[in-house]
Structures are given as structure tokens and as C-alpha cells.
Design goal:
By secondary structure, the protein is mostly beta strands. The termini are far apart. The protein has 1 helix and 15 strands. The protein has one domain: Beta Barrel (Porin), CATH 2.40.160.40. Strand 14 and strand 15 form a beta hairpin. Helix content is 8%, strand content 56%.
Amino acid sequence: MTRISRSPALLAGTMLALLGAVSLAQAQDAAPDNSYTVQLNQDSFFGFYPSFTGQLEMREGLDFAFYGILWTKPAFGLGQGNSGDDLWTEFGAGVTLRALEGKLLVKPLLGITNGSLLSGGDINPNPAGPRGSTRVTGSNFADGLVPSLTLNYSSEKFEAESYLGYYMALRNRNDSGLDFLHYWVNAGYKFSPYVSAGLHWEHLRNSRNSYPGGTSADVYRWAGPYVQFSLPKGFFARFSGGTDLEDDFDGDFYKLNVGMTF
């Protein structure tokens, strides 16, 4: 079963590579207008997770986009070893469409995750256990697939962002797979080019759980204000905080995003 289940993972990796190759080939003849953003992120659920995004102009109003997230919280409590096989790694690519004279950015992306969170790890027969038993021996390349859509709006006085992503296990879907729906919406007012503030709403739901006895459930529903400070050369820092509306005694939420675009 393990060998057969690798076919979707290899297909996902191949699709991602082809998307990047075709997009970059189309961009070679265009006058480049490129950007690269590096962020340091931390919040009360995901822990510390640096990320990056890059954009390469293909033609006016259309960019090739790529991104990565280095999730550093070991296995999100799944109990893998501490030798690097439990560190979730996400990478993807897509495009950015520019509208409303550049005020609105529409970014559809396709990513893959690597690790053990969605697939449960590399499951193999356990010769030391009872007949038919299995054991987890490591993590998986392309453990999951992540289609997502991000919308960003920025004008002289207003800013807004929405994100919708579905984290879907590619391996072990029938015995240890997890799927997650993740989305957020925030909107705010720019008091000056340097200071803005608004409201943030975020929801994470475990939409499918095929572990024995597992059920789908909300993980968190966050709501609260944010404040952002920005500098002219692309530096920014945003702090969000508030309450978790899920009655699960997890306490409040807080999120810090610090980055630079150049």
C-alpha cells in the first residue's frame, strides 16, 4: 500500500515543477519587476514559522509567484522523532493577478507539504508486532496538497486581506490521514503611511480525520484587533490578538508577523 500511495505525491511534485518551469520561461522575455518578502511569524497555535514569498513579472498585470513556510513545531504533537523527520515543510507556486490599478492582488497557489502532519508519517509493516500491525518509520515527501487563494487590497486609506487554503493528505487517507480547512479575513484603516489598525478573524477546522475513532472538529476560531507599523523601504510589523471562540480552554490567541519586502 505504501508504494502505491506514492503516485499522487510524485504527481503533485511534478505538477509543481512544471508550473514553475512554464511560468519562468514565459517571464524571460519581459522586463522584470520582481519582489521578495521574508517574514518571521509566531502565534499561539502554530508556534514559530518563518516564511517567504517571491514574485516575478510575466507581463503587465500577471506575475509568477512562489512561496514557502518552514514550520518548526515538531510534528504538531504527533510523536515523531526529533531528528528533523518531524518538521513540516511547505512549498508552492502559482500566479498573482493585479487589478484595480494594482490595488487588488488575486493569488491562486498550489503547494505541497512534506512531513507527517497530514499523512501520519511513513507507515510500514511492523515485523515485531502482531500480524497485520504497522509502525511509523519517518515522514513523507509530498505528505499533502495545498490549493489556496489569497486576496490583498491596499489603497491610500484602507487595507484588507483574505486567505482560503485546504490542506489535504496525499498519503494514508483511509487509516491515518488528516485534512484541514484554514481561512482568515482582516481589514483595517491606514491612519498614515506608517500606522494601520483593524480587525482579524481566523478559523482552522480539522475537516477530515481517518484515524480510528477520529472525528472532524473545529481547532480554533480567533477574533480580535491588529495594529501594523510600516516603513517606506518595505519593513513591517503586525501584532494581532484576541479571543478563541472555541470553548476548549485553550486561552486567548496572539500572532506576530515581522517582515521585509525588497
